[in-house]
Amino acid sequence: MTEQAQRLKLRAAEWMLVVYFAYVAVLSAWRASSPDLRAGGLWVLLAAGLTLLLVARAEAYFPAAISRFRDFLPLGLTLAAFEEMNLFAPRHFEGRLEIGRASCRERV
After folding, report:
1. Could you tell me if residue 95 is left (phi over 0), alpha (psi between -120 and 50 degrees) or otherwise beta?
2. I want to staple 7 with a disulfide (CB 3.0 to 4.6 A). Which of 2, 21, 60, 94 is the partner?
3. Are 21 and 45 in contact, with CB atoms under 8 Å apart?
4. What is the CA radius of gyration of the chain?
5. What's the pLDDT at 6?
6. How many domains does the chain have?
């Protein structure tokens, strides 16, 4: 492997996040109800992928500091992935599920 390829090597957790964001981008393009939501998953994928590649590249220049930052970067991206699930939430909640749960509790 060349030296440049080693510098851009992503860690296992980072690959897992890239695959997850790609999965959500495809799913949101197929499932979303509006064009804005369809592109939202793609923008998040591009931002996360670019961030991971830039940080991996920067590790060649500042190994100690960037390595520690890369240890915690998947944690922040996991929070972003959690927030990205709002792409699939309806804009308005009718409360049918909550009402159904309340009626089940009353019967017991």
Report:
1. left
2. 60
3. yes
4. 19
5. 56
6. 1
